[in-house]
Design brief:
It is built from 14 helices and 21 strands. It is α/β, with parallel strands linked by helices and 458 residues long. It folds into two domains: 269 residues, Metallo-beta-lactamase, Chain A (4-Layer Sandwich); 182 residues, Rossmann fold (3-Layer(aba) Sandwich).
Length: 458
């Protein structure tokens, strides 16, 4: 079995790994690279293989940096099945349509500007028609059920505990067991179950997003959130929370529901301003088989994703009307890295006022607007206009759906019985990968951090 690490090698976005077994090629993931526009266009538009030669794709979960380039793969000739869990199929269908919609809108605007400068128009990576065709290729499989993406290779999906429907992937061929983590979740987080340890394995391809960090406890995050809300109430602040439409928004809603029940949110309206997040929340309601025991219990008593102060914003006009309202108020909106969507408009109307608050709750890739805000840049550019950053910025890393360095080491320990020969670290900026590499080597493990386009034989 040959494995080529194509995407998310020494970086966090654009997950893509090419497997070849007896001249049969299949992929793990096909994600979009997120970052500076020119670099992203270059990386996303080409593949170092012929898409028509790919027999199948196995998708660990629906996040766009793992699934978002599938329509481009299909439009260039890939015609095989895309295996994933049922919940991932439902969420990926929403995300791929949303990605295509955003691209068509963005390129329409971009080409208008290019025409004014006498430049030729550019095409989006893919269109809505491409996304719809790709969605037809999604093939749902259950957790713990083995299938063959190509003859001679057995694959089984287990719960990764990262987002609804997320999977770790076990690949078996010729007596060898190869483990791929996708994005690994954390123990004890709300809504979904804990990650499943898979053992024994011979090789691991392991994410390292937070390989050198330790998250704060979730309980501490709830208390910190409560403190921020009390501060917002006193200053009558608008609290803008850039939130990923999948998992992060639903997690935040459950936290705010708890705080509402405690009386903390009296006279503080909460708005979820993301049509995609609203639709994803409906998918959550359709997949209680993915819930942990606590959420399942709540579901029997009511709706875990709703409370009286919560408003799901329906249309663009209602979204715009939030800019005319006074604080205190909480606005959760996508995208989570502030690279597009309605959150950018809310930032335009709040970022320059020192009484307002921006709460970052997830990973921000290098080159993104969210990363600039997180690193407290004095000025940022939004839609070609420059804004002074006066709003207070807060980071709540304890809400991350990714395992931290300690979690990853413990997971490796739980998945090994002395059989593990090598660990390949992917999906991490080099500093995080190197920190995890050092910690894993203390377990007497062989650990590599492959560069993009590195091929290894397993």
């Amino acid at each position: 079995m040959d494995v080529t690490f194509v995407g998310a090698a020494r970086t966090v976005t654009g997950s893509l790994h090419l497997f070849e077994y007896k001249k049969q090629k299949f992929l793990l993931e096909c994600g979009i690279f997120q970052g500076h526009r020119e670099e992203a266009e270059r990386i996303n538009s080409t593949f170092p293989f012929k898409p028509k030669d790919i027999k199948a794709v196995i998708l660990s979960h629906a996040h766009i940096d793992h699934s978002g380039n599938l329509p481009n793969l299909a439009r260039r000739g890939f015609a095989g099945p895309i295996y994933c869990t049922s919940a991932t199929k439902d969420i990926a269908s929403l995300l791929l349509r949303d990605s295509a919609k955003i691209q068509e809108f963005d390129f329409k605007y971009l080409n208008k500007k290019r025409a004014e400068k006498g430049l030729l128009p550019k095409e989006p990576l893919y269109t809505m028609a491409d996304a719809e065709n790709t969605i037809k290729q999604l093939s749902a499989v259950d957790y713990d059920r083995t299938f063959e993406p190509v003859p001679g290779v057995q694959v089984t999906l287990y719960d990764a505990g990262h987002i609804l429907g997320s999977s770790v992937i076990l690949i078996e061929a010729d007596g060898k067991r190869i483990f791929f983590s996708g994005d690994l979740g954390r123990k004890g987080m709300p809504i979904i179950r804990d990650p499943v340890a898979v053992e024994p394995v011979d090789y691991m391809i392991l994410e390292s997003t937070y390989g050198g960090r330790q998250h704060e406890s979730f309980d501490n995050m709830q208390q910190e959130f409560k403190t921020l809300i009390e501060r917002a109430k006193k200053k009558k602040s608008k609290m803008v929370i850039p939130a990923f439409a999948v998992e992060r928004t639903q997690l935040l809603v459950t936290i705010l529901k708890n705080l509402y029940d405690e009386g903390c949110l009296k006279n503080v309206p909460v708005y979820v301003d993301s049509p995609l997040a609203s639709n994803v929340t409906e998918v959550f309601r359709r997949h209680p088989e993915c819930f942990d025991a606590e959420t399942t219990k709540i579901l029997t008593e009511g709706d875990p994703f709703n409370f009286p102060n919560l408003h799901y914003v329906a249309d663009a006009e209602e979204s715009k009307s939030l800019n005319d309202k006074s604080g205190p108020m909480i606005i959760m909106s996508a995208s989570g890295m502030c690279e597009g969507g309605r959150v950018t408009h809310h930032l335009i109307h709040t970022i320059g006022d020192a009484q307002n608050m921006i709460v970052i709750t997830g990973f921000q890739a290098r080159g993104t607007l969210g990363r600039q805000i997180l690193e407290r840049a004095p000025k940022v550019t939004i839609f070609h206009d420059e804004f002074d950053v006066r709003a207070k910025t807060y980071f709540m890393g304890g809400l991350s759906a990714h395992a931290d360095g300690e979690d990853l080491v413990e997971y490796v320990k739980a998945s090994g019985d002395g059989r593990l020969k090598k660990v390949f670290l992917v999906h991490g900026e080099i500093e995080e990968s190197q920190a995890l590499q050092q910690n894993l080597r203390e377990l007497d493990l062989h650990v590599d951090i492959p560069q993009s386009l590195t091929t290894v034989s397993i």
